[in-house]
Amino acid sequence: MDSQKTRDNYTFTTTGSCEFENIQQLFNDNDFPIIEIGSLGGVNWNITLKKGEFINICPKIKISENDEQLNFRLSYFLSFENWKFPKKETLASSWGKILLKSGRRITGQSMNIYELFDPDNGWINSENSLKISYGIQIDAIQKNRIWRFNFSDSHFKGQEKKHGIRFEYEEDFIIAEEEILKLHSKIFSDGNSGFLGEFKDFKLLKECMQCAHGVRIDDSKIPEILQFAHNLKLFNVIRYCEPKLIEKLPRGKQFPIEMVLKYRLRHYLGYLLEKEKTKKEIWEFLKKMNLDELDGETMKYFVAKYLYELF
What we know:
alpha+beta; Potassium Channel Kv1.1, Chain A; 2 domains; 12 helices
């Protein structure tokens, strides 16, 4: 059960702690500083304290920008640190996986001020400072009603060899889920696959990985993404893109025949063979090419189609 989990069950990209100096005066004035955590998921985050209605205090984390389009699926922990009795921190901690909607905050466990300000309890140090520790891991981000995996931050925090596959170009990188890629491509399930090639157009590679993980992508990028999917043998991406290309055909946006054959878009090919004009174009194209370049399944398709029309 979730209630039995501890923060050790979770992995966090960003962890840290911050001090609130002269905490008693801050509480009396109800004026707590806002401390920047840094950038996560492409936005900046900060942490502060909030005074409650029933003489208590609690830590809160929120994004600095006020973007109404952003929602997050994330893991977190927030904890009061104890200078004398570290084991007491479990009682003053909160953690878990949540859906953080725009405008909302991550709220930690609250603490009664009598417990907090008693010097014998160890929450306030000799310099009258309170220390809060935190951790955040963003798994997915929703913008414009579309959820996307957060590949930008190192999800596996040093464990990527066990759980993820890393792609990088210069200083940019993403870590994709290994089991998903293995399921759809033999390249990733082959331990001797070696170098996978350079990916200089990293934005398109990211889109291809989003699609491989089940995320909807911009239709205008499909022709370019198909090249990545073909090179990485991600057939689930190719199957996703193919009906999108078919939808564009009535609008006169035909995908080049050589690319249809190269990427083995057999449903698309079947659609073209149903049309008299494009059927003639395909037969003319086949006369000029080396048929040995066709894969066996595509060759069978053409033979079946030819025999069907012949008889």
